[in-house]
């Protein structure tokens, strides 16, 4: 039972354009959401997060949008840079649970930004 | 380097053998997590510690898996009688819990191959 889904295995974007990565979830108990970025041979690194009480959170070139009614979130990267090429994981958690660090991850989307 | 350190980076073993991985968290972090990632999937939560206490274990963690965190510092994950299905990347993460927030810092992982 995949509670967090990233339906696009890969995305290819031109440098300078917008990258939009999507994520869907099924568990209504999730109340905070995160995006992690992973380069080859490295562990995932935290990128940006959003609480379920918000619908948007912005940090520099990265913006996460949350649509609770649709159980959908997206990550926008503007403008995209070649260094953004990596695997992006969507993750979700329940702040009312035992730990913020117990996360459910999606399968990941490979983003390639072409110069 | 003050990040999360995992050893070994790679481990190849024969089916039925026991293996042990080590994780050294960021020194001031009080929580330590183990995740497992298989090819094409996102990380899956296995277990976590707060200081030396193991607070939660996933149903994914069979009886052949055991984790310890003596003295609340480094942690070890042991797999007994390995099976080919145990082949995966084993990721460790640590965090410092502050009210309403907890950010995971991941190590680079240990890649296990069971032949």
Structural class category of chain A = mainly beta
Radius of gyration of chain B: 14 Å
Structural class by SSE content of chain B? mainly beta
Average the pLDDT over all residues of chain B and give the rounded result. Answer: 93
Shape of chain B: globular
What's the mean pLDDT score of chain A?
94
* Number of strand segments of chain A: 11
Pair of chains with the largest interface and how many residues each contributes: A-B, 23 and 26 residues
Terminal Cα span of chain B: 33 Å
What kind of sheet is the major sheet of chain B?
7 strands, mixed
Oligomeric state of the chains in view:
heterodimer
Number of helices of chain A: 0
* Number of DSSP strand runs of chain B: 11
Radius of gyration of chain A: 14 Å
Low-confidence stretches of chain B: none
| Largest sheet: number of strands, sense, barrel closure of chain A | 6 strands, mixed
| SSE string of chain B | EEEEEEEEEEE
Number of helices of chain B: 0
Percent strand of chain B: over 45%
General description of the model:
The complex is a heterodimer of chains A (115) and B (115). With 115 residues, chain A is mainly beta. Chain A is 0% helix and 52% strand. Chain A is built from no helices and 11 strands. Chain A has strands at 4-5, 10-14, 19-25, 32-38, 45-51, 56-59, 62-67, 72-77, 86-93, 104-105, 109-114. In chain A, strands 2, 4, 5, 9, 10 and 11 form a 6-stranded mixed β-sheet that branches. In chain A, a hairpin with a 4-residue loop joins strand 7 (62-67) and strand 8. Chain A starts with a strand and ends with a strand. The model of chain A has no long low-confidence stretch (mean pLDDT 94). In chain B, strands 2, 4, 5, 6, 9, 10 and 11 form a 7-stranded mixed β-sheet that branches. In chain B, strands 1-3-8-7 form a 4-stranded antiparallel β-sheet, with no helix packed on it. In chain B, 0% of the residues lie in helices and 49% in strands. Chain B has no helices and 11 strands. Chain B has 115 residues and is mostly beta strands. Classes of the chains: A mainly beta (115), B mainly beta (115).
